[in-house]
Design brief:
Elements lengths: L2 H102 E10 L2 E10 L1
Antiparallel strand pairs: 1-2
């Protein structure tokens, strides 16, 4: 073999070796980039899950507050209706008692105070 042939062969081997080294370096870089991308995607998924949980917690807190306000309003309305009904019942009872006392009979009487005694004379007439 002559020197020129040897040089060409050496150049081919060197270019093959450089090509292998470049491909290996590119493969390592691609694998490292893939690892970083996987890590970044997992971090994004975790952050998204945290935001979703926070939004859900806020929503449930607001919903619970709304439920509490609604319950308070309903309780206030029920209490107001109860008080109105009780007041109406008291008015009806007082009018009924007055009417019953007016129509049941007449109470007549007189009293005298003598020294330290009270003499009381009551006469009830039923009609």
């Amino acid at each position: 073999m002559d020197t020129q042939n040897l040089e060409k062969t050496a150049i081919k081997i060197q270019s093959w070796w450089r090509g292998n080294m470049v491909r290996r370096t590119l493969l390592q870089a691609a694998l490292r980039a893939w690892v970083i991308q996987c890590w970044w995607r997992s971090m994004q998924a975790k952050m998204l899950e945290q935001r979703r949980r926070l939004a859900l917690r806020l929503y449930t807190c607001q919903e619970w507050a709304v439920v509490k306000v609604q319950a308070q309003v309903r309780m206030w309305q029920a209490r107001r209706r109860f008080l109105q009904a009780r007041q109406a019942a008291c008015i009806i009872q007082s009018h009924w008692r007055w009417h019953a006392s007016q129509t049941r009979g007449l109470i007549r009487g007189h009293y005298e105070v003598r020294a330290s005694r009270l003499e009381l004379d009551i006469e009830i007439l039923m009609t």
